[in-house]
Amino acid sequence: MNKIKKGDEVVVIAGKDKGRRGTVLNVLLYDKLVVEGINVARKHVKPNPQQGVQGGIVDKEMPLHRSNVMLWNPVTQKGDRIGIKSLEDGRRVRFFKSNNEVVDV
């Protein structure tokens, strides 16, 4: 079970975007994440009329390592570490380590 999943709200804890929050758009190979509005690079795109691609400079979200983000805890209003535990009915769920609150119900 991954500790960070698509759709989670995360806060960046290292790098040029430190302190900014965003939503995870994609998880790549368990250790890289693409976060909305974070780690944006400017990419020069060549026009391709056959595919309908217009050329120019495009802003693109680049992946960052999962160790550089923390899951946003809405109760404490900060980033928080995540643990995984099993409930009585056998389900495995993620929980915040600071207040033991379950992330996904």
Descriptive notes:
The structure is a single chain. The chain is an all-beta fold and 105 residues long. Strand 7 and strand 8 (78-80) form a beta hairpin. The model has no long low-confidence stretch (mean pLDDT 94). The protein has one domain: Roll (SH3 type barrels). The protein is built from no helices and ten strands.
List keywords for this structure.
46% strand, elongated, mainly beta, SH3 type barrels, 10 strands, 105 residues, 6-stranded antiparallel β-sheet
- Any idea what the shape is? elongated
Task: Characterize the largest beta sheet: strand count, sense, and whether it forms a barrel.
Answer: 6 strands, antiparallel
Broad CATH class: Mainly Beta
Distance between the termini: 15 Å
CATH architecture: Roll
Question: Nearest-angstrom radius of gyration?
Answer: 17 Å
